[in-house]
Write a structure and sequence with these properties.
This protein is about 40% helix and about 15% strand. Helix 5 links the parallel strand 5 and strand 6. It contains six helices and seven strands; from the N terminus they run βαβαβαβαβαβαβ. A seven-stranded parallel sheet has the order 3-2-1-4-5-6-7, with helices on both faces. It is globular and about 50 Å long.
Length: about 240
């Protein structure tokens, strides 16, 4: 297992939901963290009381590619290294084939696919230099099968799984390992209106965070390409 001390992890969407739980778990494990998001005040409030030497906060807007390069450059300037990237920022959409909306489709594609792609692009040279770089893309079980009519969300999460495999291929020989984390229902803002099941029966963000920490710590010769996590029985699992 890789020791967390000294390793630097970038986390998008760290101010809420799965990203927040991941940030909390990784900080407690001893990682240094660079937290990216649009709501800097929320990130600062979340990390209040954490050791300032191990926390960096930067603007990240998935639809503004200049913020991606600025973030990775600032993290490098602060810590001198980047060892991991967790793409947790994302959005939901309920548009269907019967009622498409071009503007909403463009927005979800930018946030769930184009943003993570470019952020990986910006971080990749530093992850390669690490020799044990790690990428975790928070996808979804909706990226493995289709069980509802939310066509845009399903499309983008399938694309994120494909992006993960592209990242695995391109820098494998330089020690970069990528994992697609695919949870089902999680009690976050995204599922606040869901009536599918009681929120206490959903997979908890803290448990997903522990899985992310495990994947980040695995050695290069124990890589997990896809991590499917469900709170209900499905035949494919």
């Amino acid at each position: 297992m890789l020791a967390p001390q000294g390793r630097v992890i970038l986390i998008s969407g760290a101010n809420r939901g799965i990203g927040r739980a991941v940030a909390q778990a990784l900080y407690e494990d001893g990682y240094s963290l660079s937290l990216g998001g649009r709501d800097l005040a929320s990130l600062e409030a979340m990390s209040a009381g954490w050791a300032s030497s191990r926390v960096h906060i930067a603007r990240y807007d998935a639809q503004d590619w200049t913020s991606h390069r600025a973030w990775t450059d600032a993290a490098m300037a602060r810590f001198g290294r980047i060892d991991g990237l967790v793409n947790s920022a994302g959005m939901h959409s309920s548009i269907t084939l019967r009622a498409p909306d071009e503007a909403e489709l463009d927005a979800i594609w930018a946030v769930n696919c184009k943003g993570p792609l470019n952020l990986i692009h910006c971080a990749l040279p530093h992850l390669e230099t690490s020799g044990a770089g790690r990428i975790v893309n928070v996808a979804s079980m909706s990226g493995k099968r289709v069980r509802n009519d939310h066509v845009a969300y399903n499309m983008t999460k399938h694309a994120m799984v494909a992006l993960t495999h592209a990242a695995r291929r391109i820098s494998w020989d330089k020690g970069v390992r990528a994992t697609a984390l695919c949870p089902s229902f999680v009690p976050t803002d995204m599922t606040a209106t869901s009536k599918a099941m009681a929120r206490q029966d959903m997979t908890q963000p803290a448990d997903l965070a522990r899985l992310v920490a495990t994947v980040l710590a695995l050695p290069n010769n124990a890589s997990v390409a896809e991590l499917l996590v469900n709170c209900r029985l499905e035949d494919m699992l």
